[in-house]
Amino acid sequence: MKHRKGFVSNSSSSSFVVIGYKVDMSRDSTDLEDLAQKLAPEVMAELKELATKDGEFDEDSFEDEIYGALYSGKLFKGVDFISDDSIGYLGKEICKVEDWGLEYSEKSIKELMEIGEGIQGVLQRTDSASLYMGQRAC
Asked: Could you read off the pLDDT of 34-57 as tens digits, one per residue?
């Protein structure tokens, strides 16, 4: 009989550690769109153009364009976007665990604080960034 040592998973999920801010991703929330409009109005204008076909603005297409820009890093340069259902995180992913094992990462407390301050500046927040750990479906 073959025995496997280490991490074993039959599900498609990964764990993460991120420094940043929690974002309300529920259907009725405009937090993310408001922040994007404030920090990247030129990108948002471009995304609205992409979501307009034959003079008709398509709200669903616009939402898809926003998420595409978030995941690609186009909307907030240097900021990672992690989401699952109604919760999202904007920040810097500093460590993750995929099905095949841990992506090793080592940061000093000073480095973590500098990352948090950098994210705080990019997102123009007055409150300090937080450290979030969780699991997301892939």
From this structure: 888 888 999 999 999 999 988 899
Which element (helix H / strand E) includes 137? strand 130-137
The count of structural domains within the chain is 1
1 domain-assigned: no
| Residues 51, 61 contacting (CB under 8 angstroms) | yes
pTM: 0.76
Domain encompassing residue 82: 13-137
H helices of 1-138, in order, are: 31-39, 41-50, 59-72, 109-122
Is 81 within the bounds of a domain?
Answer: yes
Total H helices, total E strands in the chain: 4, 7
Residue 2 is assigned to a structural domain of this protein: no
First to last CA, the chain: 30
